[in-house]
Design brief:
Radius of gyration: 20 Å
Order of helices and strands: EEEHEEEEEEEE
Number of strands: 11
Strand order of the largest sheet: 1-2-3
Oligomer: single chain
Structural class: mainly beta
């Protein structure tokens, strides 16, 4: 018999499999068997607004005007950002934008070139 993962919500060991879902009988939580595979890898996958996987050093474009806090400037839609660096914080991308300098962006507001 294969070892099924514990419930991610209540940590019960009594989970069972139904088609492509795992189900917890104690708290009735259901989750995909595919979600478990990505969670067990332990590697966070960063995706842009269209679902493309991002990596360090990629070039992206901004998909909407972004207002900057503090300086009052705006990063315009279509601005190209080269050589991004992915970080694990509330903003996923650290980068330098010409004319603005170093800043952090969220991956949901960029598209991979």
């Amino acid at each position: 018999m294969s070892a099924l993962p514990a419930c991610p919500q209540c940590h019960s060991a009594f989970t069972y499999e139904d088609r492509n879902l795992y189900i917890c009988p104690e708290c009735a939580y259901e989750w995909s068997t595919q979600a478990v595979v990505t969670a067990e890898d332990g590697v966070k996958v960063y995706r842009d607004s269209t679902g493309n996987v991002l990596a360090d050093g990629d070039t992206v474009t901004v998909i909407k005007d972004l207002k900057l806090k503090g300086s009052g400037g705006v990063v315009k839609m279509g601005t190209k950002v080269k050589n991004i660096r992915l970080v694990d914080s509330d903003h996923d991308i650290d980068c330098k934008i010409d004319g603005f300098g170093a800043m952090s962006l969220k991956s949901e507001f960029v598209k991979k070139v």
